Amino acid sequence: MSETINLLGCGILKNEVESLIRKNGWALEPHWLHSALHNYFDRLYRELDEGLYDLEQQGRPTLVFYGACHPRIEQLLEQHHTLRTQGQNCIVMLLGYETFMQHLGEGAYFLLEDWAVTWEPMITQCFGGNLTVIREIFKGSHRKMIAIRTPCSGDFTAAAEAAARFVDLPLEWMESDLSHLEQVLAEAISERQEQQS
Asked: What residues are paired with 8 via a beta bridge?
């Protein structure tokens, strides 16, 4: 890779992406947005738009590490002449579509470390403080919570258990390597380089 690419992404898999950048020697300079922005469409759109504008002022190409996390994300990418990693969301990018759909079909809510450690304040800020309502929301569409450990995870056992208790869902654990995420990033980098040439 010749020219450094600015990567603007969701911080939910920050450690995993930065680990892959180091491993592969990719000329990517990562810039991270808060992972809770998914809960606030207006803020997500605004911060992505402003972040891409600021990075473009450096005169480097950009790449976006997001799924289809906003209904107008493709329009935003077109405006900024860039592209994003392929995948519906970060879990699809990490696990692969088939694994994601299998567990989603079983009613899973996927939990990563970044959300687990800030779970209660993040959820109450988004849904309010009525625990009965919060539990109805989660139990209306989910039957279990799956906490995903990666090679970059710390020990977030207590945080995951507390998150599952908070929404009254049973907790399961899943181990994931970074092979699928690595492939998704490699393909996006290659596509961005081709776009530049």
From this structure: 31, 64
**Distance between CA 77 and CA 69 in Å, rounded?**
12
Closest CA to 79 of 45, 130, 28: 45
The DSSP secondary structure of 78-145, one letter per residue, reads HHTT--B-SSSSHHHHHH-HHHHHHHHHTTEEEE-HHHHTTHHHHHHHHH-S-HHHHHHHHHHH-SEE
- Reported as a single tens digit per residue, the pLDDT across 69-90 is 888 999 999 999 999 999 999 9
User: Which range marks the domain in which residue 23 is found?
Assistant: 5-88+178-196
User: Residues 128, 59: one domain?
Assistant: no
18-42 tens-digit pLDDT: 999 999 999 999 999 998 888 788 9
Q: 51 and 126 in one domain?
A: no
**113-144 pLDDT, tens per residue?**
999 999 999 899 888 889 999 999 999 999 99
What's the total number of domains in the chain?
A: 2
pTM of the model: 0.93
**Residues 135 and 154 reside in one and the same domain:** yes
